[in-house]
């Protein structure tokens, strides 16, 4: 018999209410011992929770019982909604560990059980993880859609189409001797396969937005020392995150703040000023600044009117800095009016001041526009993780091979269709993903 697991599923205590969740075959006996009996399923019941050994009343709580398989995990599940005091929760967890067949849950174990019992597919599991991690409205919406199964249904549908195509091809072999099966069946199937490949490729292109929405856009402040980068970070964040002084070389570490720009997640990164002459610590800061810049979705080049145009330094073999979009931010515009109409070779130039009221409004507005353009996701489900991207790319590749190699025997081409279907099955967890599961569930917190 499986272990019965339990954990504090709500956040940190102390809190008004804390929720302890149990799942497994011993839930009923645990409720009998702790609450006196098993309440009617799916109805909140007030119960005194007692220590079964001493009879001591630990707390008065709302108890909810869900009878398997109609529960989150598919097993019997109970929730104890108790008072969120440290001692209350500690004592309840202690008493639960003393009950036969019960043990504390590992991270993600409730969700893992839901997956193992077919209550959720892997994309839904990931959607749930994303929902818990969502920091902005757009992220929340995407996560809810994925948790609801929209992405999994799309991939299942594609997979079914592939399986059907393969069946058609194989049926053709079986009836190859009979005259009444026209050879055009396979032509039609390969036409469908080519069309599906295009659909997958199209989905991959649009899914860049889905991945970006999940991880947030990276906007990196760069520029020479004292250009006003840290001041901009503080102004845009609305709080004093970075140290600002008149000394060149103040910032050495990479600092970041998470901004919610109109529902879109943006990570704004402050970096060390770039210059040739620098001490050891600052040099390391500059190295890190350049690394972050290379991975940026957008670089904001902070520049005083007399300051240098964007220049990221040398020694990056194989990296093309012109690939990274750069905007000029004319800083300290309260001191000197920035040159008009000059974006100094960058996509855009915006003036900003950190000392006058609303001095960074224009920049904030432009960044919000950039975020919504770059990650506008629309209504269709999108791939949100590299894992999905890899599997989809393999699927399209295998499918392309099957379509193109028309001189190969039909059996071999049909086998490619099976492999393509398997790539999609790995995304939803329908087929052999044992190796992946630990990685995916590790991201969950305990109690989920
Ligand atoms: N008047 C005025 N001064 C500013 C403005 N922004 C920054 N400063 C001043 O410029 C100096 C440098 O600002 P920082 O924000 O530390 O510049 P930084 O680019 O982060 O500098 P490093 O971290 O040393 O590379 C400080 O004395 C700031 O007070 C501004 O908009 N107007
Ligand atoms: K400074
Ligand atoms: Mg700084």
UniProtKB/TrEMBL annotation:
UniProt subcellular location: Cytoplasm
TrmE-type G domain mapped to chain residues: 216-372
InterPro entries from the UniProt entry: G_TrmE, GTP-bd, GTP-bd_TrmE_N, GTPase_MnmE, MnmE_dom2, MnmE_helical, P-loop_NTPase, Small_GTP-bd
Positions with a binding annotation for (6S)-5-formyl-5,6,7,8-tetrahydrofolate: 21, 79, 119, 448
PROSITE patterns: G_TRME
Top-tier EC class: hydrolase
Keywords: Cytoplasm, GTP-binding, Hydrolase, Magnesium, Metal-binding, Nucleotide-binding, Potassium, tRNA processing
EC number, UniProt record: 3.6.-.-
Pfam families reported for this sequence: MMR_HSR1, MnmE_helical, TrmE_N
Annotated GTP binding sites: 226-231, 245-251, 270-273
GO molecular function annotations of the record: hydrolase activity
Cofactor(s) recorded in Swiss-Prot or TrEMBL: K(+)
UniProt xrefs under Gene3D superfamilies: P-loop containing nucleotide triphosphate hydrolases, Probable tRNA modification gtpase trme, domain 1, tRNA modification GTPase MnmE domain 2
Cofactor, free-text remark: Binds 1 potassium ion per subunit.
Annotated residues for binding of Mg(2+): 230, 251
Record HAMAP family: GTPase_MnmE
Subunit structure: Homodimer. Heterotetramer of two MnmE and two MnmG subunits.
PANTHER family, per database record: TRNA MODIFICATION GTPASE GTPBP3, TRNA MODIFICATION GTPASE GTPBP3, MITOCHONDRIAL
Family, similarity comment: Belongs to the TRAFAC class TrmE-Era-EngA-EngB-Septin-like GTPase superfamily. TrmE GTPase family.
Record function comment: Exhibits a very high intrinsic GTPase hydrolysis rate. Involved in the addition of a carboxymethylaminomethyl (cmnm) group at the wobble position (U34) of certain tRNAs, forming tRNA-cmnm(5)s(2)U34.
Name of the protein: tRNA modification GTPase MnmE
């Amino acid at each position: 018999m499986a272990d019965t697991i339990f954990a504090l599923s709500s956040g940190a205590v102390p809190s008004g209410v804390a929720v302890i969740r149990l799942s497994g075959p011993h839930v009923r006996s645990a409720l009998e011992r702790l609450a006196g009996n098993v309440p009617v399923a799916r109805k909140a019941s007030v119960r005194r929770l007692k220590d079964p050994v001493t009879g001591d009343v630990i707390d008065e709580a709302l108890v909810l019982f869900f009878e398997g398989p109609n529960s989150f995990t598919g097993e019997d599940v109970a929730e104890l909604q108790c008072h969120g005091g440290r001692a209350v929760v500690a004592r309840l967890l202690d008493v639960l560990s003393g009950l036969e067949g019960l043990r504390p849950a590992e991270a993600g174990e409730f969700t893992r059980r839901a997956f193992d019992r077919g209550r959720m597919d892997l994309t839904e599991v990931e959607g749930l993880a994303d929902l818990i991690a969502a920091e902005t409205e757009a992220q929340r919406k995407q996560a809810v859609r994925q948790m609801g199964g929209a992405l999994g249904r799309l991939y299942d549908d594609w997979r079914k189409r592939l399986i059907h195509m393969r069946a058609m091809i194989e049926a053709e072999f079986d009836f190859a001797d009979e005259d009444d099966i026209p050879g055009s069946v396979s032509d039609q199937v390969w036409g469908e396969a080519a069309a599906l490949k295009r659909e997958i490729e199209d989905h991959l292109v649009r899914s860049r937005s889905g991945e970006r929405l999940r991880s947030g856009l990276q906007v990196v402040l760069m520029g020479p020392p004292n250009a006003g980068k840290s001041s901009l970070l503080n102004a845009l964040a609305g709080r004093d995150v970075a140290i600002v002084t008149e000394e060149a070389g103040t910032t050495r570490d990479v600092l970041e703040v998470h901004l919610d720009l109109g529902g879109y997640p943006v990570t704004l990164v402050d970096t060390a000023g770039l210059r040739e002459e620098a001490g050891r610590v600052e040099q390391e800061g500059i190295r890190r600044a350049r690394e972050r810049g290379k991975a940026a979705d957008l670089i904001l080049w902070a520049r005083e009117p007399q300051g240098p145009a964007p220049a990221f330094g040398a020694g990056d073999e194989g990296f093309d800095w012109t690939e990274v979009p750069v905007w000029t931010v004319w800083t300290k515009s309260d001191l000197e009016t920035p040159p008009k109409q000059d974006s100094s070779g960058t996509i855009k130039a915006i003036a900003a001041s950190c000392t006058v009221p609303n001095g960074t409004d224009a920049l904030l507005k432009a960044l919000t526009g950039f975020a919504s353009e770059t990650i506008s996701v629309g209504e269709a489900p999108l791939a949100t993780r590299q894992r999905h991207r890899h599997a989809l790319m393999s699927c399209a590749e295998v499918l392309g091979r099957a379509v193109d190699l028309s001189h190969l025997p039909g059996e071999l081409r049909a086998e490619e269709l099976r492999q393509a279907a398997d790539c999609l099955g790995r995304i939803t967890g329908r087929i052999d993903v044992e190796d992946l599961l630990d990685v995916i569930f590790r991201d969950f917190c305990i109690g989920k």
